[in-house]
Design goal:
about 300 residues; eight-stranded antiparallel beta sheet; about 10% helix; six-stranded mixed beta sheet
Length: about 300
């Protein structure tokens, strides 16, 4: 995949935006707060489910001194077939000893070193200047997914994509193999902040190890190409907020579902919703008769019966 196009205007020669120059922008609008360490018999997804919004801007007079852009007005008209977002997992060490050979880093929400201007969110004639940069449709998304992922993961390990408090973070800090669940998702069109929006909801992600983590999101369109390039361009990326993965015994429970989570459910996105908080129950001291507890009963302590 082409990574030099990330967060920059792209002139497409094929796909839904053929003949147009588009800049994509990803933003995490709901971060995960916590999760329970993955287990085969009890896989619990991150909560609340991470959600990112994709905003698209048409760029006019690209490459000239009069370059400007305007956000698309109606996202319900955008073709979403082939449009995908995927995640990578990165570990945030709290102490140097936790990850040998690596210094601790704190999360910054910046994405790369791009000095991008603030973009207008209205659909009226609201434009701004933009700095210059030198810079098969009949198949299904599922058929292309496997080969596309191979190309994505082949990125140079030394490539810096963001900074934590001034410290560069590279592909070498990636722990995506510790993720379980749907790492590639298609967008949903929902009402958000009073207008239609394209969002990607990662409702089926679990982590196989304990610790502090954050996600990096990247989006692309399987059917869109750049002139002279056969590979799929990565259109945008962003870094999400930090969350914690607990052991089963330390897991504090779940909060009631957020309004955004409920809104996604109303629009048909498959995820779990809760009206009330679910706290872990306090166990009473074991009695003498409970000394003969079986393994089966020990496993039961990890089940839903431990939560109110």
């Amino acid at each position: 995949m082409i990574v030099s196009s990330i967060n920059r205007p792209i002139h497409f020669v094929s796909g839904y935006f053929q003949g147009q120059t588009i800049r994509a922008e990803l933003k995490e609008i709901q971060k995960a707060d916590l999760g329970r360490k993955y287990a085969r018999v009890d896989r619990r997804p991150l909560d609340p489910p991470p959600v990112v919004q994709l905003r698209l801007y048409q760029v006019f007079n690209y490459g000239t001194d009069t370059q400007y852009e305007q956000e698309l007005c109606d996202y319900s008209e955008v073709q979403t077939l082939g449009l995908l977002c995927y995640v990578d997992l990165f570990y945030v060490p709290t102490e140097p000893a936790q990850v040998p050979g690596r210094e601790p880093r704190q999360l910054s929400r910046t994405t790369g070193n791009l000095d991008l201007p603030e973009s207008s969110s209205s659909c009226a004639s609201n434009y701004h200047q933009y700095p210059r940069y030198d810079a098969s449709p009949h198949a299904t998304a599922t058929q292309h997914l496997s080969s596309s992922r191979d190309n994505i993961l082949a990125l140079p390990s030394s490539a810096t994509f963001t900074h934590f408090e001034g410290h560069p973070t590279s592909e070498e800090m990636k722990y995506t193999n510790a993720l379980s669940g749907a790492m590639f998702v298609q967008p949903a069109v929902i009402d958000y902040n009073g207008r239609r929006a394209l969002v990607f909801a990662f409702s089926d992600l679990a982590v196989k190890m304990e610790g502090q983590f954050f996600l990096r999101y990247r989006c692309f369109d399987l059917f869109s190409r750049i002139s002279g390039q056969g590979e799929v361009p990565i259109q945008s990326e962003c870094v999400g907020g930090q969350f914690r993965i607990y052991s089963t015994k330390e897991f504090p429970g779940l909060q009631a579902s957020t309004e955004l989570t409920k809104q996604l459910a109303r629009y048909g996105v498959r995820l779990n919703t809760r009206e009330t908080e679910r706290k872990r129950k306090r166990k009473s001291p074991p009695s003498t008769s409970g000394s003969m507890t079986t393994k089966g009963k020990e496993r039961e302590t990890d089940s839903d019966s431990d939560y109110e």
